[in-house]
Amino acid sequence: MSDEPLYRLSDHAREEAERRGISLDLVDTIMRSPGQVIKAHLDRRVYQSKVKIGNKLYLVRAVVEQSEPLLVITVYRTSKIDKYWSDNA
Question: Model pTM?
């Protein structure tokens, strides 16, 4: 088993998570066990999960570059679940 991490967080992703009130523990959970992984542009995927924050359901999305290890480019949450969630993924 390799000691190499599964993923790295870019400085931007770390700053955006903090600014948007998304804990790094939640980012870790989504990266290790995403509800969905959707192909994005180029060599990127979006790892996303539905998460209840307070009394509201959000979709937390991590844009991830497919490198070794994976690189989280940014992370954000949205209430527009139907826009991004794919029942075909």
Answer: 0.91
